[in-house]
Amino acid sequence: MCGIFSYYGKKHNAPEIVVEGLKCLEYRGYDSWGIAYKSNDKIFIHKKVGKISDYTINKDHFRSSEISIGEVEDPNEIKISIGHSRWATHGGVTKSNAHPHFTEDKDIVLVHNGIFENYLEVKAFLQKKGHNFHSDTDTEVIAHLIAEHCKTHSFEDSIKLACKEIEGRYAFVAIKKDSKQLISARKGSPLIIGVGKNEDEYYVASDIPAFLPYTNKVIYLDDNQMSIIEDGKIRFYDLEKGKDIEKRIIEIDLDIEHAEKGEFPHFMIKEIMEQKDTLHRACNANSELIEQVANEIKKAFGTYIVGCGTAGKVCMVGEYLFSAIAKKHINFSFGSEFSCHKHFLTDKSLMICVSQSGETADTLEAIEIAKEKGVKIVSIVNVESSTMARISDIVIPIKAGLEKAVASTKATTSQLAILTLLAYACNGGIHEGKQLLIDTAGQINDMLNPRYEGYIMELAKRIKDVESMYIIGRGSNYPIALEAAIKLQEVSYIHAEGFAGGELKHGPIALISENTPVIALVANDECKKEILSNAMEVKSRGGYIIGVSPDNHEVFDYWIKVPDTGDASPIVNIIPIQILSYQLAVLRKNDPDQPRNLAKSVTVK
Ligand code: F6R
What we know:
The protein contains 17 helices and 25 strands. By secondary structure, it is of the alpha/beta class. The site of fructose -6-phosphate (F6R) has 15 residues, from helix 9 and helix 15.
């Protein structure tokens, strides 16, 4: 979470570059933002609560506020600006908790992403030494810790010492009033350096697209590494080994994916509609790569499939698909729960990680645990330049394209498609799997039309004011019921819960009263009879049954038709729920692209 963007170079509009860079990173956090700008040994700071995308930089505004960009006269002077878009962890959403954070005399200023786990201990120690704090954040403590070391050490050495004392994950960029250095350090949270065309110009950001308009030359900072930019040059230091290191500049051929909304009012609905194409791209996944991973699964002594949130639900579907199609048991775990499985890992185990961003801290930590045991790592990711892709042994890209809305939609169905293909490949049926997915993509293309949206809108209008709703499914559609609940919760803010159909009678059925909406996911599979009787149990207690199914059944009060796609039913069943969630968000006047309290990339544990 949180986006970092910093600039070092001669461009006179450094704050503007940082503000625009932060706008690209807003998906990482959007409750407040701030920038600091260094000019003539003075540091100016500007912070605001709210979304940076609503902000247009205005020189006059900056002149009259805390940043003056009019002060720099010498066009050759190096300009340094650091910025941050926040997703609150420590302390509420206030201007004083927004980054950058600084010491009292604004001597040391920094932006930070991650969690400084032992900050309270360190804060108490610093308070005893006379440091005063003005925010509730862990980040402010880092600034003071560096300042404390600066009493006896250089800025650079003080950061090295501070890094030894910080427990947890971090990525930060720091500047000091009387230093010409821009120093960055990373452990667990992403930080990438863009090397400008003139080579004496640098960008330091949480993600590459933020600086792609300026350069495609990148240096990936790895964990426990620090970069020092000074006098137009960059150096690197390994914080663990305690020595200088060399790093390679990599030229990437990533196009700037200018996700524009086009004719759509929101990214979420645009991305839902893009599933007409994205599924085709997933079906065209490299067959050799799929076969290679299938062989790894076949020979592994235990395969673990790991992800978080929506990606976690996709992994759960994978468990069912492998059982039904490949007759193979694989073990699912959420990233945050994976450490409990570590006792079963050996160097013959295999781990498959599923992630849109490739930056989810819980999944990355699961990989660290697995790697310590010598486990081979396969990742199924959308962002191919992500940390996860770089630390995995094999990467299957899902090619869904930039997903901007916080609620995952097109990445979800592409991940499901790749897992379906893998399950078929494990059973020697990759061609059959591809054909199934190509047919499914074609049917989704026919399904996604304005009439279909209008039909779901009728339902959305009917249920938009309910307090709670439930979703039931069985077999591979049980995790889809859980995923449907996430989608509804995230953007509509309606209380929604998913259940395995058979579990209702063991407790949750007590929640059903007159007209409680219950969505039943009814595929034409071996669970059909049972899920229909579960729906009937709900109806008998007054529930309003919304059936998502290829056929209309008597028990349904409202039928949403989906194509009959056999093993690909999880893919088609989630799509109408994505549309319904979006429509409920709009009807309830929520922002479906940037829902409250969330961020697209969850880089804290
Ligand atoms: C929900 C959603 C999240 C993510 C989760 C993992 O719509 O998007 O639940 O699925 O945070 O993110 P990735 O896939 O980037 O690892």
